[in-house]
Design brief:
Blueprint (H helix, E strand, L loop, with lengths): L5 E5 L3 H13 L3 E5 L2 H8 L6 E5 L7 H9 L8 E6 L4 H10 L3 E4 L4 H59 L8 H30 L5 E3 L1 H13 L7 E5 L5 E3 L1 H18 L6 E10 L2 E8 L31 H11 L3 E7 L3 E8 L1
Parallel strand pairs: 1-2, 1-3, 3-4, 4-5, 7-9
Antiparallel strand pairs: 6-8, 9-10, 10-12, 11-12
């Protein structure tokens, strides 16, 4: 709620602190104050505010340096930062936004404008928290349902195997379509098991901690490929990896990410005489883009927006097996790294999937 929101004012001007603090207190906010950057950082060790009003121009430690350290504190990821400045220094403001500030206000502050901006950013914070809570509940529900369904499905599979043995040993003649019916039952049971396992994977990928470190993507890609290609006996597959730059990512999550992508490439090239998988990269505007291209079945780009939704499939199970969860996991992992993913494809020619790392 707005009236329980905590606002930290960081400014070396006592008069500004007094006037602004009084205004905010009268409007129902809890106010904390710091007259220097170091004092502000010290306060954050004890309490995390909902919003920080941060003066850019301060001696010893300016607002930009304070902002940088605040954004390095994972406990402050939901805290909004609004710069307070007496001049429109475009370079400083752009640097502030790059560091993670949300807005700025010019001195002298008009009370109505200040309150309106604070109210807007606090509403955004509350909505973001509610959305995160909803995602957590959804993930927990997904994990719970998947886990609860796993055991009954496995028991059904075992009972089917037992029934199959009993029927084969029976002295009574079986209907002509008995074998076909049993085969279909086994297939559907296996499909359900695979779907539940993928849901558990999806849930696990959203709950595992994300601890980014500098990693060599080529090493992760080759390890994932070497595991997957063991199941592709007799196929002609060419994997080409150009020199890739280091990226910052969680090794466990990235291993799952590249496993899902390569698994798709191997699956959708299965009908080609020779499979071609190429991994390239380029760096632009501070982002590293890694692209995985194959010469597989491809798809119509008119349906591309469905690809990253759970259980969405663009090919029938009779063409290619799958559950429709793999790319959803890829998307979620990239978002957890502060990145994104895009895809381009041409039917019968292949697909290019690009990962964008910050």
């Amino acid at each position: 709620m707005e009236h329980s929101s905590v606002i930290l004012i960081v400014d070396d001007n006592p008069e500004f602190i007094h006037m602004t603090g009084t205004l905010l207190t009268r409007n129902g906010y809890e106010v904390r104050v710091a007259d220097s950057g170091r004092q502000a950082l010290s306060l954050l060790d004890r309490e995390i505010p909902d919003l920080i009003l941060l003066d850019i121009r301060m001696p010893e430690m300016d607002g930009l340096a304070v902002c940088r350290q605040i954004r390095e504190n994972s406990r402050c990821e939901d805290t909004a930062i609004l710069f307070i400045t007496g001049e429109q220094d475009r370079a400083s403001l752009e640097e502030g936004f790059r560091l993670g500030a949300q807005d700025y206000i010019l001195k002298p502050c008009q009370p109505s404008e200040l309150l309106a901006r604070i109210r807007t950013h606090l509403q955004i914070i509350n909505q973001t928290r509610e959305l995160k809570a909803a995602y957590r509940e959804m993930d927990q529900f997904c994990h719970s349902v998947s886990h609860d369904l796993k055991s009954p499905i496995q028991v059904m599979h075992q009972l089917l195997e037992l029934l199959s043995v009993i029927l084969k040993e029976s002295a009574n003649p079986l209907p002509e379509d008995a074998d076909e019916v049993m085969e279909r039952l086994f297939h559907k049971c296996s499909q359900a098991e695979a779907m539940i396992m993928r849901l558990l994977d999806f849930s696990r990928m959203t709950q595992l901690p994300c601890r980014p470190v500098p990693v060599d993507p080529e090493k992760i890609i080759r390890n994932a490929y070497n595991d997957l290609v063991l199941l592709e006996e007799g196929r002609i597959i060419h994997l080409t990896i150009e020199k890739l730059p280091s990226v910052c990512g969680d090794p466990v999550l990235l291993s799952q990410l590249f496993t899902n992508i390569l698994s798709n490439s191997l699956k959708f090239t299965r009908n080609k005489p020779e499979a071609e998988i190429r991994v390239t990269s380029q760096v632009k505007k501070g982002q590293t883009a890694i692209t995985i291209t194959d010469n597989g079945a491809g798809f119509d780009m008119a349906y591309a927006d469905r690809l990253f939704s759970v259980f969405e499939r663009l090919h029938s199970s009779s063409e290619f097996e799958g559950t429709g969860v793999g790319l959803t996991i890829v998307k979620r992992i990239m978002l957890r790294h502060g990145g994104d993913v895009s895809i381009q494809s041409v039917p019968d020619e292949g697909t290019s999937l690009t990962l964008y790392f910050p």
